[in-house]
Specification:
6-stranded mixed β-sheet; alpha/beta
């Protein structure tokens, strides 16, 4: 059975339908990419997978449990298994790196301060950072802040990591570093990853399968070989980075 089974998922903001009876599966251990033009609801779809947003109708089944209607309290153990890397990184400005990365451990475990420090140091090594435990986010580069946020998402050894535009605002070299870190950690740890991105280089580097979201539904779902052979003109133009036309 697939790790995620999403069925007939519908979400609207007022009169605007964002997700329209969306159905798809995500297999354990894969990197699943959600692509689409700006404003198509990619991040909305992502937030359904850990209960950050509740659908209007439909279901999100995670490892045999429908999480779409769980209360915040009931979602607590689920979110220990599903980490999320937000587009902004969402680091606490008033916390140093040790406190930021260690925050999930404080919230979800009974580890003492020395044990937390050791776990945080291990997580930072996974993202090729060392010697910055006492630094604050304001003193770090954008790429380093993103890597600290990635370390925080990995520190609880989650089964799933959700990535919302992980390379936004980064230069190409730094974005490539983030991409390799995502792929390397996914392979080493065996985690399932779901990545929302506009970055086609990142998508091609890390993705096993891709879904192209348009008008609330996936108009394509498959692997890269299948995508390269698509006869869908919008997907072809998107993957080629062509200029949009009035018809689009």
């Amino acid at each position: 059975m697939a790790l995620f089974q999403v069925r007939e998922l519908t979400k609207s903001y007022g009169p605007r339908v964002i997700l329209d009876r969306l159905s798809f599966d995500i297999e354990k251990g894969e990197v699943f990419i959600i692509l689409g033009r700006s404003g198509t609801g990619k991040s909305v779809a992502l937030r359904q997978l850990n209960g950050l947003e509740e659908p209007d109708s439909g279901s999100v089944n995670f490892d045999g449990e429908d999480i779409s209607s769980l209360t915040e309290r009931e979602l607590y153990p689920v979110r220990r298994r599903i980490a999320m890397l937000f587009q902004s990184g969402a680091l606490f400005d008033s916390f140093n790196v040790l406190e930021n990365v260690g925050f999930p451990l404080k919230e979800h475990t009974d580890l003492n301060d020395d044990e937390i420090r050791a776990r945080v140091s291990e997580a930072l090594k996974r993202v090729r950072l060392d010697g910055i435990l006492d630094k604050f986010p304001a003193s770090l580069s954008g790429g380093m802040r993103k890597r600290v946020a990635l370390a925080r998402s990995l520190v609880l050894d989650p089964e799933v990591v959700l990535f919302d535009e992980p390379t936004t605002g980064l230069d190409p070299m730094t974005a490539a570093t983030i991409g390799h870190l995502i792929r390397d950690n996914q392979r080493e740890l065996g985690v399932t990853c779901v990545v929302v991105t506009h970055d086609l280089a990142l998508a091609r580097l890390v993705g096993d399968r891709l879904a192209f979201l348009d008008q609330g539904r996936f108009r394509f779902l498959g692997n890269w070989e299948e995508a390269s052979q698509t006869d869908d003109p919008l997907l072809r133009d998107f993957l080629a980075g062509r200029e949009e036309t009035d018809a689009q």
